[in-house]
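Handout, section B. The chain below has 290 residues.
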Amino acid sequence: MSDSGSAKTVSVAVGAGLATAGLVVGLAGPKVVEKILLKLKPGGKFSGMNKPTAGARTVKELEVGTHPLQLYSMATPNGQKVTIALEEMGLKYDAWYTNIMSGDQFTSGFVKVNPNSKIPALVDNDAPGGKPLHLFETGNILLYLAERSGKFLPTDPAAKAECLNWLFFNVGEAPYFGQFGHFTRYAPVKLDYAVNRYSTEVQRALDVLDKQLEGKSFLCGEEYSIADMAWLPWVRCLEIFYEAYDTLEMSTYSNVAAWRERVEARPATAKGLIINSGAQNGAFKEYHSA
């Protein structure tokens, strides 16, 4: 069968994605398969970003401001966790907009700070020992900043452990929220299995939060903590970025809704949400001393 003939007779079920594309290899020539794969765009919106290798792709040093803390980030939920903490803790920092859609996280300077090429990445030029300290992974950054500032982390061992329960629950659960967003908003192929799987998990997590917040102002009681800072951006993202308020029946989680309103009313938290974003005509997109 010729390539042109195959193109007329081979049907690719888009819902089956790459699995279907793989099946036609035995029925069609390589040119037809290549056309199918290009049409499906298996990486979707992020096809140019994702590769199976690590390391720098371009040579470029990071810019540095005058403050001890240098943040390289973007106002995604993970980025917002850190800017909320920095604002709430009153720490001096420079926040440099890092456009992950343009590949800024793959520059040599960024990879030096975070070999995993994910935002946010933080450098403390006034760290203990007198040497710059590179920090990545939001749970680690929030814990470090809380201990550095002495704020938003209980000093009592039992209360601290409780706070860290909820912080690291977020660290483990946030990727499920991200996968929900990917398969409902960005995936080039609509897969009902994936959508249902991640919708169910996100709703389960919201129910966990809702039950924990019963009779409480914040996740760990009456004191705002880094656990709340970690969870707010991802809960907020479900409505603001993923537009899934109705899909996830978020109105049924009344304790979560009240908590979110309470937390978003905090001026420092509200400001932290818009650092390194395009909000207010980009007034805080670049937020540094340079």
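Note. The beta strands are 69-73, 93-97, 121-124, 133-136. Compare this with the example in section A.
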